[in-house]
Amino acid sequence: MARRNRSAAGPPKAPTTPRPRADRGSAPVEYGEGTRLILVGGVAILAIAVIGVIGYLLVRSLFPSNPVVLRVGDEDIRLNYYAARLETFLVQQGGLTDINQVLPIANILLQDIAQEEIILQSLDEAGVEVTDDDVQIEIERRIGVTEEEDFARYRQGLIDELDRASLNEDQYRHLVSAELARTRMQDTFQQEQVQETVIPFLPPLSFGPHASFNQLNLGTEEEAADARQRLLDGEDFTTVALELDPAAVPPESGSPFQPVFILDQAVQDAIETLEAEAISDVLETSLGFSVVQLIDKGPHLLSEGDHAGIAQSRFDEFLEERREAIGVEEDLSDSEIVDAFEKAA
Q: Most buried among 15, 112, 157, 251, by the most CB within 10 A?
């Protein structure tokens, strides 16, 4: 067997020494391009969020919250305006200084403001016009001098009016416009009422429906039903009233005639259908559960006060219809009332 020639294979290889491994903890970590973009983006988003929070807090401190507390149609009423009106309202209420006295009546002012906006948005429907010139004339009347007569006195008077009302000039003119519109609408309803009730070919006397009647007012429907049955069975009204509702006992001179328009709507409707001496069904009224006994009814002469009452009733009905048509949203919380009270104080 032939031997290998070792010299041909070359010198023997020196033993290899293992290369020391690098200390992985001390070497910089290399990121790919995508990873770097993600990190940069995250830092940027965080910075924007921090700046946003700081900006929001700064704006809140410089410009306090002024939320919408009332929306009438497309018109927004904000808390600052309500607070300005509240200041004058509290003076009119005797100078209230206790928030516990203000909370129960705060909604009255909100309803007043809502009605003003309803009126201003219903001028065409009522056939009433209020121009900028009308508003200017009314302001000059309140101040006691016209702008042309004495500009300096006029401006000072206007400033005094704005201070008294706690409003800026635009808000004040808006309020005056609403007050003018209300007066003109009421006058229109009054005139229409008089014209409708005047009998042609006679002197200008107005007549309207009146009624003489007795009315029992009881606390429950069952009590009223029992009382009604007793009357239907022939018991005298005075006898039943003395037992169940002494306040309803008719006077010795008999029940006086009253204008029908001043009565609860349920009573008006009952009187319209009842004949003399008839007994109504049980009626739910503002006084409880009522039973009406009609004595007589017919047209009687209307006084000036009667006309005013009828006109006001029709005006109120008109505003209620317009309120539903326009749409009113109220959003005034107790905390906002407190906020407004503190601003007004």
A: 157
Residues 176 and 222 in one domain: no
Q: Range of 255's domain?
A: 207-301
Q: Are residues 153 and 296 in the same domain?
A: no
CB 181 within 8 A of CB 125: no
- The answer as to whether 226 is a domain residue is yes
Assign 202 a pLDDT band (cuts: 50, 70, 90). very low
**241 and 186 belong to one structural domain:** no
DSSP 219: S
CB 263 within 8 A of CB 212: no
Amino acid letter, residue 24: R
The model carries a pTM of 0.61
Beta bridge partners of 329: 71
- Write out the two tokens for 209: 């429906």
Q: Is the dihedral of CA 265, 287, 215, 235 positive or negative?
A: positive
256-278 burial code (b ≥16 CB/10 A, e <16): ebbbbbebbebbeebbeebeeee
Q: How far apart are CA 251 and CA 277, in angstroms?
A: 17
From CA 270, how far away is CA 272, in angstroms rounded?
Answer: 5
Residue range 63-79, pLDDT digits in tens: 457 999 999 999 999 99
What are the angstrom distances between the C-alpha of 239 and each of 218, 235, 244, 295? 15, 7, 9, 16
Whether residues 188 and 230 fall in one domain: no
Report the distance separating Cα 219 and Cα 289, nearest Å.
Answer: 6
285 plus 191 within the same structural domain: no
Q: Are 141 and 188 in a shared domain?
A: yes
Residues 256 and 284 grouped into a single domain: yes
Query: What average pLDDT does the structure give for the chain?
Result: 83
What is d(CA 317, CA 323) in angstroms, rounded to the nearest whole number? 10
